[in-house]
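Supplementary Note 3. Input sequence used for the single-chain structure prediction.
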Amino acid sequence: MEKLADIGVFGGSGFYSFLEDIKEVKVETPYGAPSDSLFIGKIGPHRVAFMPRHNREHSIPPHLINYRANVWAMKEVGCKRVISPCAAGSLQKHVEPGHFVICDQFVDWTDGRKSTFFEGPVVSHPSPAETYCPELRSLAAKTAKDLGITVHETGTVVVINGPRFSTKAESKFFTNQGWEVINMTAFPEAYLVKEMDMCPLNISLITDYDAGLVGDVPPVSHQEVLNVFNRNLDNLKKLLFTLIENIPAENNNCECSKTSKCSH
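The predicted structure, written as discrete structure tokens, is reproduced below.
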């Protein structure tokens, strides 16, 4: 396929709906249908491919997303970097609703998800030790600070299967591990991006305290999650689009493009 984009973004229609000259591209993959078409537009020097990971109608729950098809589609149109903004819960009181976290580690607490492209006859074991691109993380944190957005430059996200949220007992366990963020989509999305030799970046927008941090703060309601997300959507758009404009046009010197070649 013709190389149509160099940066991919998994996010909703709010991120691309106001761009001009949007091109909708449907991609067929060896792994079945992606969540939706790719919507390709221009931001600064970059052609950017947007895909709503839950479908444009938000009809696909997190445990049923075809992550491999989605990531394959990004690679197929030429993406070298993939940004994954997401709504997430906080596991620590100092990580407050409305803050942003640029995660540098994940913990996989999911079950049954197809989480690798290597199913034979080629067998490979790309290391997930440093999944998220350090250069993109650094640039994202600097951009947030320049915009006056409260940002945590590191954080561990524990990824649960969904669609249910955690019990208080589960949430207390996660908090006691020292992890900061909880989400339902960060795995295997980022690791699959890395397997495809693209640079992954997570941007978590904190919308709530998970399970009320076991009584330390009031339990959150679904409506409050939506309220916090909507209040911070402009900040997320501003961060995302300013970040993309600031990403160098030339491919960076990080190791992400060599992931599958460096496995053992």
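The two ends are 30 Å apart (CA to CA). Residues 7-261 form a domain with the Rossmann fold fold (CATH 3.40.50.1580).
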